[in-house]
Amino acid sequence: MGIDALLFDVDGTLADTEEAHRHAFNVAFERHGLDWRWQPEDYRRLLEVTGGKERIRSYIDALPLSGAERRRLLERVPALHEDKTRIYTGIVRDSGIHLRPGVERLIHEALDAGCRLAIASTTSAANIDALLQATLGPRGLDLFSVIACGDQVRRKKPAPDIYRLALTTLGLGPESAVAIEDSANGLRSAQAAGLWTLVTPTFWTEGSDFDGAELVLPGLGDPASPLEGEPGARLRIAAWLSFAELAAQVTPRPKSRLAALYEGSAP
């Protein structure tokens, strides 16, 4: 099977950004006079909810509040999230966040092989723009044929909408593309869209249920950052995942029960 496109998730997949997101949420809460402080373990649980605004709403829904107080706080979610996004993009621009090892290499190997790239993420366009410019330079966005982000679809991951949007915009079927993810919700989304999926977890997602993923690696690896035990465990050629090896491993996947469940649903 040839790979015509790689579809990348962003947070946790391209770069380990979740600590920056967590810090931005906490700063936004403080600026809005709220005594909420999300600790790392709290945030790991909250990451089971995709989307920043949805994450805040989920947190509010779990608080012991009166109906009136809950409604008042829920009305503040858009403003809270807007400030959080502004804080996060500033952190990304100023803090020197780096792509995970192997990501930039794989991007350029894929492009050199004539493969197109796309983003399929539930984060905001502003967050994607800030990260790509900070890590890949001012023309980072130009490397991607399609940028599909959360505000463009009705349902966020684990629904397949964002991947379906990316594939439709590329003009491809799922049999021609590969998804690269770091989370269980992302995997479920890609599976439901019919995509062969590689998962590279981080601290924030390790230990999740990645059942059904075609390949799970601790990262992509690089010549300078080889993966322990490779080649020989999951990789055949080297101790890092090259585009050539990915293409050799990919085979068309049968339609999953998730894909059947979402069949016919519109993005």
From TrEMBL:
**Key words, A-Z:** Hydrolase
**Matches recorded under Gene3D superfamilies:** HAD superfamily/HAD-like (3.40.50.1000), Putative phosphatase, domain 2 (1.10.150.240)
InterPro entries of this UniProt entry? CbbY-like, HAD-like_sf, HAD-SF_hydro_IA, HAD_sf, PGP-like_dom2
One GO term in the molecular function aspect is: hydrolase activity
Superkingdom: Bacteria
Q: What is this protein called?
A: HAD-IA family hydrolase
Please give the organism. Answer: Variovorax ureilyticus
